[in-house]
Amino acid sequence: MEEEEVPFEGPPAMLRRKLRQLVDATVIWVSSRWAVLVILLGAYALRICIVRGFFMVTYVLGIYLLNLLIGFLSPAVDPESEGPTLPVSEKEEYRPFERKLPEFKFWLRAVKAVLFAFGMTLFREFDLPVFWPILLAYFFLLLVLSMKDRIMHMMKHKYLPFTVGKQTYGNLAKIADVAEWEKVKAAEGKPVFVQFSAEWCGPCQSIEGNLDEFAEKYKDKMDFKYFDVEQDDFDEIAQAEEVANMPTFKIYK
Length: 253
What we know:
Layout: H1 11-24, H2 30-51, H3 55-73, H4 79-82, H5 103-120, H6 132-157, E1 173-174, H7 178-186, E2 192-197, H8 202-206, H9 208-217, E3 223-228, H10 235-240, E4 248-252
Parallel strand pairs: 1-3, 2-3
Antiparallel strand pairs: 2-4
């Protein structure tokens, strides 16, 4: 039997793959990731104040970040074009809010944009002569109009841009604290099926129905638990369990 040849990866491909692994590993560090973005924005603002230029670059960056924010606040499926995606009364079936732009992609694209804009400020060719007060006024006008449109959309279709009212996924009981997690790890009695997830995880929400059916079918053979990686003291546990993507499923027995 002939052995399959493994394609050779050059240094650039290996570097990109390693960088991607490092970025994926930051998924569980939500607060730390956004703190880094705030620091980058602060450093960029300080840079602009020092050089007193690159206002057009800053304006374009602001417009791009505003577009990302709108995507983050928008539902994955527009109710106006494809029907209702969220319940409009307490009697309807629970459906979590699914974003058009997931939180992690929002953060990653924002970081890339800020770094790219910061790099452009190193070249005077991008410092175009403009009257910056007009750009600032126009940006705030776009911000107000965009947020007004989003708010009107939320009011019309009766939804909020975040999930409320549910702390677990279907038949999966939420792990409350570290002590309960230690019991799960011990797995005394039936095996324990654990879903590592977070409320901002779009794919996790989309498979909720199938996961409920699976849990109902095998509830006599194993216990089902939900691990929220954003909960206090849980980030280190998720890292120790090598949880780098959402959702991650593990069985302890």
